[in-house]
């Protein structure tokens, strides 16, 4: 087989076999296929697309390029959740203990974040003492005992994807549905999940800005998962404004804790109940989505979900008393209110700008080497559709510096106030299974 012939075949719109795709991915991972040939191949895929069979073969070839996590020692059906990411997305912190409290084993491999705030691990590390440095046997034991554990990502998960993603980033080939879908699904499948629930975000603060494209991506990922024997479901959820009110690591942990105590916010709760219902259903802990939702509501109401969070924190070295007293979480030195410049209704909160503002305060990483400040961030006081009076606080910065003029400008500039009443945006647009 010669790479040049396979590039030509794809360029001319023909379908590649499983063996041909394996040849490409193995050759690229082993440095036998150079970047320039792989770039040409990625561009051919960008223009010619891939069949469902090709997408499944590409995903599996990337899974097989590195370590595959063996979760077989964990009892029950392991359901993973993946979000394509957004501003204020603290869903995993609330959702993991919520579904674990219903009996779903949650064996979560998570990463650190690059961008507006930290990733799930960074957020969890805002809890004093909490750590994810546990070995795989302890990880399995903890999930069997408590139904929930979180571990850091192994370095050698889908190396082919890592290399290809870096190449796509500099060859204008990131934005290709077959390449994005196989990239995301390869990581989920290599992480050992039996079933997968996907939260594909759409809107100004999302990786996919347009609803149609988000739908296409969700459908592509569901098809790959199902073709590879992992039951997969997806929702498309709104990211035209941050999720919940808090953006920033400790602030987001606090909001997730409040949600598990039954204190909202409504959008975070609804998202967790929707994603959680699918997880509980796929894990066969309920016979219908409706029954699953009722079970989730029960564990919030009877305190089992918040108790599960405490058990999980303590098992991984953290201080579980932060759950009862969230003042024990890191807090910033200054709270700086940002006021509305006119009266009216909030019609827009550009999530990207709020994310950038939080990152500027120190909540996120500009580069992999950046050190993040777990205490800082932004609390919104208004969401789209809310009425506001001139001079009323629309947000509060939690900062460790008083010198925040650019951040104030960013936050103020992310809000649009209009005179006509506005309907809040839809939170969940579609479900795909
Ligand atoms: N996220 C991924 O993991 N891969 C992509 O290709 C795009 C977003």
Structure description:
The chain is an alpha/beta fold and 433 residues long. It contains 16 helices and 13 strands. The chain has a four-stranded mixed sheet with strand order 1-4-5-13, sandwiched between helices. The chain has a four-stranded antiparallel sheet with strand order 6-9-11-7, sandwiched between helices. The longest helix is centred in the middle third of the chain and has 17 residues, at 211-227. The chain is globular and about 70 Å long. The model has no long low-confidence stretch (mean pLDDT 96). Keywords: Glycosyltransferase, Transferase. Its EC number is 2.4.2.2.
Could you provide a short overview of the structure?
Helices cover 44% and strands 15% of the residues. The chain has helices spanning 3-11, 18-29, 35-48, 52-63, 91-102, 120-124, 136-146, 159-169, 177-190, 211-227, 249-260, 266-282, 289-301, 304-315, 351-361, 405-414, and strands at residues 79-83, 106-110, 148-152, 195-202, 231-238, 246-247, 334-339, 344-349, 377-380, 387-388, 393-399, 415-418, 428-432.
